[in-house]
Each structure stands twice: as C-alpha cells, then as structure tokens.
Amino acid sequence: MLRAKYSVSFPRSVRRFGRISCWLGLAAIASCSNSAPAGGSGTGGTTNLGDVSTGGAGGNAVSDGGGASGATSLGGGTWINRTAGTTAAGLPWVDVASDATGTNLVAVTTIGTGNPDGNIWTSADAGATWSNRTKGTTASGQYWQSVASDAIGTNLVAVTRFTGILPGGEDVWTSADGGATWTKRTTVNSTARGVVGPTIASDSTGKHLVLADGDIWSSDDSGATWTDRTAATSAAAQTWIDMASDSTATHLVGITAASDIWTSADAGATWSNRTTGTAASGLDWQGVASDATGTTLVAVCSVSVSSSGILYAGDIWVSADSGTTWTNRTTGTAASGHLWVSVASDAAGTHLVAASAHGIGNDIWTSSDSGTTWLNETTGTTASGQQWARVASDASGVRLVSVTSNGAPVSGHTGTPCCFGDIWTN
Predict the structure, then answer these.
(1) Which of 126, 198, 208, 335 is deepest in the core (most CB within 10 A)?
(2) Based on the number of CB atoms within 10 Å of its own CB, is 414 exposed (0-12), middle (13-18) or buried (19 or more)?
(3) 281: burial class by Cβ within 10 Å (0-12, 13-18, 19+)?
(4) CA-based Rg of the chain, rounded to a whole angstrom?
(5) Cα–Cα distances in Å, from 53 out to 1, 76, 163, 358?
(6) How many Å apart are CA 265 and CA 252, to the nearest integer?
(7) pLDDT (tens digit, 9 = 90+) per residue, 12-31?
C-alpha cells in the first residue's frame, strides 16, 4: 500500500500515508477473501484470505437497471457501480476487503475535502447494498487507511493513518461481529522518517494480525496485545507501503517506498530484503499480494524517475519461490508503463488482478496464468478511466471488488473529483 491521502492525483506512494494490505492468505480458506481452499492476499482490501483475481475479458458497457453501469468481466459477470445513487456514493474510499466467498465485504473511507466522513461500511450481499457501521460512534470521523477481514467476514481489523497533527499515532481497531461494533485496541507511532503506513493484514481466522507502520507489529490474540517484531533490526523504521500474508500469517511479504521487497517465513520474527542489489530494487512499489501458501507472490510498481534520472516503467513482478527471485512479467508488453496501484491474488496464485490509475490506463487487468500474460478487462467500457484505489477478490477469483476515488462529488459535497468515488463489483 503512502497514501494527505487524495489531495492530489498521484500514485499511492506519493499521496497516501500508508496502509498494510490486510491480506491473510488465501491459501487457507479461512483467509479473508474467499471460500475456496486457500486464499491469497493483495493490495486491495485485505482479507487475507486471498485477494483473488478473475481473469476477465473486457466487454460492452451495460446498465444494471438502477443507474449503475458495468463492463464485462472474465469472471463471468459485469463490473457494476454498486454505490451510485446511494448514500455510499461519492465518498473518499481508500480500502476494501473481502471474505473467502466474496459475500461479506468491508470498506473504509477517510476524511476528504468538504466531506467529513471517515467511516467503516460493510456489505453482506456481495456488494449489492452497503451499511455505515460506525456512524454516530467513536469510530466515526477517523482517517481510516487500511482494513482486513478473516475468511468468513466476522473478525475485522482497521487502522487509521497519521494526520500530521502531533502527538500523532495510528490507531488499530477490531470488530468481532462483522463490523457491528468496534473496539480501539492500540496506538502505534511510526518509527520511519516519513510516515507512509500503516497497512494491516489478517490470517484466515482473524486471530493472527500483522501491522506495518515503520516497524512491523504482530498480534496473536485478535488485536488485544501487540509485539514489535522488527525493533533494532535492519527491517525497522522502514517506509512500508503494503503487506500481504498467507492464510496462516506465517509467510509474509512487504514492500517499502521506492525501495525493496522483504519477506518473512516465521510470522515476522525475522525479515530478509529480497531485492537489494537486483533489478527489482529501488522501484516505486505500490502493492503486493500472496497466494495461500506464501509461495507465489506478485507486486506492482508505478512509473517513476530515480534520483539519478533513470526512468522506471510501471510493471508487474512475480515470484514463484516465496520471494527469493523476482521476474518482470509485463516489460515490453501493453501492460507495461502503467501507474499500477493495487494487486490481488487467488489462493493458488494462478488468478491475479491488478488496477492502474492516475492518468495512465486507469483500468483493471487480470491474469489466469500466474502473471505470465495479462488482459485489460475494462478497456472500452464504463469501468475504464476510473481512479481505482484498491482491489480485492474472493478465494476463487470469481468475485472481485474495487473502490475508486474519482467519482463526481454528490450533492452537498465540495471536494475535487480526485477524492471521491464509489464501490464496484464484477
């Protein structure tokens, strides 16, 4: 996951304080987003159950009869704007997560210009309808940044971002009843020089949680207590952008701003910088995802220029050995050179989905062969051109959900188009 979060239309690494992809591993069906055998994780909402992608081909724009439009998806459905014309329309959405079946979803908004929202919303019908669960409570009006879910959508976790107002600190909240009630668990102060995070992830049970915010913190009791795993190590005080987990929260992967990809095979106790000294080092990483076992990983980077003036294309990189080596899968193809912002994987690491935004592409792409080839499934449809922010998937890659941040402000809102959006499903 950066992120004065939508003050300008730049990539997440530039505009957001940070977020941890609460992606628990799809591999374990319990992982948050799918009911399939195991889920993967991704930069989209975090359910760690596995942000899964559907491999879908683009299609003609259609109407759902309620004013919402969609585009044909390889997953067999159409991309539909689920919040158009509702109270959930035109809000500053920043993250979304799914359970393993794609039925129970959770999404968070931050506080946008002219729109004091900052709430947590849930859907129990695959995104058809949405309920504001925090309105009128102490959890309302927060600068939410990242959210994650267990495999069944019961245990949820969300984290706020640094507001720039001292003493600062990022708050972690949990819910054990599908989002009906929320409890503030802890406040973490980032140790990084630049506050980029936080980003959060969960295993398939919602018991094991991981937070990246300068240091990496973990909880083995559903957020009641937390342990700093990277204090006084080389992985401390990093500008973490996003993080993903397998279904058990044992194998983790994290990316740092304009830097490297790190992995852990012991629930965060120790970390290894996997890309330092390689062609994958120093890229403007934006999102990362994992399959249910932590074997197949995928990361996306945005177009960027290094301090020495070297131009890096925005590409999608894949690892088939738990992060030991990485391969640029899109270089020289139509999928290269985009401002990629989010990525998700199914439990097997076969079906992947990635979203681009901020002026170059602004589409959703899918792969059904572990990233070897990619298909733009929204080009030429009404779902194209959206300011996609995050994408999540169920464990099978059939049900996808994404939040945008460029919907036209609704009546009563005065914010700029860059900061308000909707929720789409396929």
Answers:
(1) 198
(2) exposed
(3) middle
(4) 18
(5) 17, 12, 32, 21
(6) 7
(7) 333 333 333 333 333 332 23
